[in-house]
TrEMBL record:
Residues 107-252 form the Peptidase S9 prolyl oligopeptidase catalytic domain. The lineage of its organism: Bacteria, Bacillati, Bacillota, Bacilli, Bacillales. GO terms for biological process: proteolysis. It comes from Planococcus versutus. Signal peptide: none annotated. This is Esterase. GO terms for molecular function: serine-type peptidase activity.
Length: 255
């Protein structure tokens, strides 16, 4: 496995490939990290994927890793949706760049943990070219989640630095990426979910509810949608979940 630290325009990333294949066209996965994390924290996913013959791109999200701007935890949390939407926008650039460099076989797999899983869900709504996805303790109910976050901040005594009109604009924008509101956009593409039932950071129930709704459109291809739930797990992906996700990509990007 070869790991290269690179800068693609303004995006710092790790570019991981099987040995001797850094310039070959390969099945490729872009994998997004979680909130307050960084690209290096998902190298175990990249290792497993590279062992299966895949290329992996691990980018740093806005205000994270090498893109840190010395914001405190509260400031970064208040800009959560800006970070998510920026990652979705930057995925289009990464997609174009990978094709321009002739590095991809077929189309991209996209996945991520926590905030990265949330990013993946929004990306599935706007990019029909995503070939397969893995959502690790993520969520697609953008509007509901944003409203819950705002209520939580206000209940802690934080005054949100946005007007009522700005809140409404944000929710209108997030609705464009909301999986609950745009379930038809999944179009029976392979998607794997992992979620711990004891997760208090990204609640289990809304994602499981969405999965049950999505299953209806996958009735003719039930093998293309899987929800792996772990009863005692919280907000941390198990080794089994990680291995299942990497096997999922290897299977559905090599077909």
């Amino acid at each position: 496995m070869k790991v290269e630290k690179q800068m693609w325009e303004h995006i710092p990333l790790l570019h991981i490939t099987p040995d001797q294949h850094e310039h070959s066209a390969l099945p490729t996965v872009v994998f997004f990290h979680g909130h307050m994390s960084a690209k290096e924290h998902n190298l175990h996913y990249a290792y497993q994927l590279a062992q299966r013959g895949l290329r992996v791109i691990l980018p740093d999200a806005l205000f994270h890793g090498e893109r840190s701007e010395a914001l405190d935890t509260v400031e970064i949390s208040l800009r959560f949706w800006e970070i998510v939407l920026t990652s979705i926008e930057e995925l289009a650039f990464l997609h174009a760049e990978l094709h321009k460099r002739d590095l991809v076989v077929g189309e991209l797999g996209v996945g991520g943990t926590s905030m990265g899983g949330i990013t993946t869900m929004g990306a599935m709504i706007v990019y029909p070219w995503i070939q397969a996805a893995a959502v690790m303790m993520g969520a697609g109910n953008y509007v509901e989640l944003a409203q819950a976050q705002m209520t939580q901040y206000e209940s802690r005594g934080f005054e949100l630095p946005v007007s009522k009109k700005e809140k409404e604009h944000m929710l209108t924008t997030l609705a464009l990426f909301d999986s609950v509101q745009h379930q038809d956009k999944f179009n029976k593409r392979p998607i794997y979910f992992w979620h711990g039932e004891q997760d208090t950071t990204v609640p289990f129930e809304p994602t499981y509810r969405l999965y049950k709704d999505l299953k209806k459109q996958y009735e003719s291809v039930p093998e293309k949608i899987v929800f792996h739930r772990e009863r005692e797990a919280g907000h941390a992906v198990s080794r089994t979940g990680m291995l299942n996700a990497t096997q999922w990509f290897a299977k559905h990007l090599s077909e």
